[in-house]
Amino acid sequence: MIEFIKAIILGILQGITEWLPISSTAHLILLNDIIKLNVGDEFWKLFLVVIQLGSILAVVVLYFNMLNPFAKNKSADEKTSSYRLWFMIFIASLPLIIAALLDDYISESPLVIAATLIIYGVLFIVVEKHNKTTTPKINSVGAIDMKTAFLIGIFQLLAVIPGTSRSGATIIGALILGVSRLAATEFSFFLAIPAMFGASGLKLLKFILSTGLTFNGNEFFILILATVVSFVVSIVAIKHLLQYIRRNDFTAFGYYRIGLGILILAVAGLKLIFV
């Protein structure tokens, strides 16, 4: 029973942090150090990625009409807009091919996570300070062109480093490129669909090849439970984030990242002293 409670807690954390630019993977890794889900190392690596599918399904549900080019209630122009959006998502997702090749060479050490949390936290503060004196060039997702989409995809590539945050990297990239906060946030949501489905598929394939997909009953239920929880929580988190962004900027998230990074460094330092 205790493992199921841990799965619920991890699902809640995933649903909240996936969409905030503060790195869901970093939070899950750190929380697991505290509550320690009782599963094997290979399953834990799979868990970290597959649990994100719940979050992705939340985006698909919330934006289904906008993303669906086959909706009967859409005009020809609206269907064209949906096709165009998917094409921009495809262009922005091309750099993910490189990310797939780098997956096995990325360190998940606390020092790496802390460094990326702090670096991108500072970037958020600097970029938002600069943006107070500028006007966005692109104010809607539909206005994002091929060049901008591809460059945002390059920023997304940086998220292979734990602690970076996929949403954080894409939102910062979009802001630097002159995209409005709301459009940058929504486009980041959409980029998560191929990014996470692709990552989950790759992790699942590796897990099958290395273990033969030997789930035990508890592991399977833990995975399903955490994924469902992350879906429900993501629905709420996305709606609240959009409301927040309409009235505020990302500076607060920058300070949060810096504070969390410093905390991780402090904890890592104490472990070195007392080990």
Overview in brief:
This protein has 275 residues and is mainly α. The protein has helices at 2-17, 24-35, 41-50, 52-62, 64-67, 76-93, 96-102, 110-131, 146-157, 166-176, 181-211, 217-247, 251-274. The protein has one domain (2-274).
3D structure, described in words:
This protein has 13 helices and no strands. With 275 residues, the protein is mainly alpha-helical. The chain has one domain. The protein is globular. The two termini are 32 Å apart. The model has no long low-confidence stretch (mean pLDDT 88).
Q: Provide the structure class.
A: mainly alpha
Average pLDDT, rounded to a whole number, is 88
Largest sheet: none
Number of helices: 13
Tally of strands: 0
Proportion in β-strands: under 5%
Distance between the termini: 32 Å
Helix-strand string: HHHHHHHHHHHHH
Pick out the low-confidence regions.
Answer: none
The helicity comes to: over 70%
Dominant shape:
globular
Number of self-contained structural domains: 1
Radius of gyration using CA atoms only = 19 Å
